[in-house]
Design a protein that fits this description.
alpha/beta; Nitrilase/N-carbamoyl-D-aminoacid amidohydrolase; seven-stranded mixed β-sheet
C-alpha cells in the first residue's frame, strides 16, 4: 500500500479554519499520488483553541469519499460534563467518507501543555481507551505526539493487532532526531509500520518519517506531502515467525520479536 503523511504550513488564531480547506486539498493530492491512507499532524486541521469552535469532520469525510482513501486527521472535542475540558482526538475516516473511529489521547494526565499556551488554549483531558481498527489496508492504531515516549501504549496496540501505528505530532523543536529515533524504535520493537509528521509553525523544519521494522522507508523536513510504499505482507511475515537471529542477512531485524515477552515476569515485577 502507499502511505502519505502531510507537514502543512499551519494557520493559528482567527484564520485557522483555513486549515480545513488546505487539508481537503492535501487529501486530493495524496490520492493523485496513489496513496491509500493519508496522515495529518496532531490537531490539524483543528480547532486549536476552544474559543474558535468548528467541526472539520464533514468536510474531511467529503474529501475522503471523493478521493476514495483513508484519512487520519486531528481535532479537539468537548468532554461531556465539564465546563472547559477537551479531548485531543484523531479521526479515522474511511474511503466511503464514513467515520470509522476516534482515538482520544490518553497520556499524560491533563492539562499538560495545552492550557493558556501560545499555540493551544484549552484544558486537555486524558481518555482511557486504546482502540485498533481492522481496515482493508490492515489493522490501524493511533497514538498522539509525545505518547511515543510511553512505549507501553504502542506495544498494547501491536498486541491488539495493529500493523500500522500512526504517531502524529503537534510541534516539535530542538530534539527532532531523538523523536524520529523513538518513532523508528517503535517500528522495530513492535514489528509494525510507523509514521509521524508535524505542523510547520514559523521557520522550523519538519520531521516527517515513515518506518518499517527493517528500515527507514522515507523521511522529509520539507513542507507538504511525503508518500512511500509500505509492505504489510513483510510485517505479517516477520510477526508469524519464531524469534531468531538471522546470520544470513535474510532479515534486517529480529523476526517474531513480540514473542520475546514473558507476561508472567511483568505481572510478578510490575507495580503502578
Amino acid at each position: 500500500m502507499k502511505l502519505a503523511v502531510v507537514q502543512p504550513r499551519t494557520e493559528l488564531g482567527p484564520g485557522e479554519e483555513k486549515n480545513v480547506e488546505r487539508a481537503a486539498r492535501y487529501v486530493d493530492e495524496a490520492a493523485a499520488h496513489g496513496a491509500e491512507l493519508v496522515l495529518f499532524p496532531e490537531t490539524y486541521p483543528g480547532p486549536w483553541t476552544a474559543a474558535l469552535r468548528y467541526d472539520p469532520c464533514e468536510r474531511l469525510c467529503a474529501a475522503a469519499r471523493t478521493a476514495g482513501i483513508h484519512v487520519v486527521a486531528g481535532t479537539t472535542e468537548p468532554v461531556p460534563g465539564t465546563t472547559n475540558g477537551y479531548h485531543i482526538v484523531c479521526l479515522l475516516i474511511g474511503p466511503d467518507g464514513r467515520l470509522i473511529g476516534k482515538y482520544r489521547r490518553t497520556c499524560p494526565r491533563g492539562p499538560y501543555i495545552y492550557e493558556g499556551g501560545r499555540l493551544w488554549d484549552f484544558r486537555y483531558t486524558e481518555a482511557d481507551e486504546l482502540p485498533v481498527w481492522s481496515t482493508p489496508l490492515g489493522t490501524v492504531g493511533i497514538n498522539i505526539c509525545s505518547e511515543v515516549f510511553v512505549p507501553e501504549l504502542q506495544r498494547i496496540l501491536a498486541l491488539k493487532g495493529a500493523e500500522i501505528i500512526l504517531l502524529p505530532a503537534g510541534w516539535v523543536m530542538d530534539f527532532n532526531e531523538n523523536w524520529l529515533t523513538l518513532v523508528r524504535a517503535r517500528a522495530i520493537e513492535n514489528l509494525a509500520i510507523t509514521a509521524t509528521c508535524h505542523n510547520l509553525i514559523g521557520p522550523n523544519d519538519g520531521m516527517a518519517m515513515i518506518a518499517s521494522p527493517e528500515r527507514m522507508v522515507a523521511s522529509s523536513k520539507a513542507e507538504g506531502l511525503l508518500v512511500a510504499d509500505v509492505d504489510l505482507e513483510r510485517v505479517r511475515e516477520l510477526r508469524g515467525l519464531r524469534p531468531r537471529m538471522s546470520g544470513t542477512h535474510e532479515f534486517a531485524t529480529i523476526p517474531g520479536v513480540l514473542g520475546f515477552r514473558r507476561p508472567e515476569v511483568f505481572k510478578k515485577n510490575l507495580t503502578e
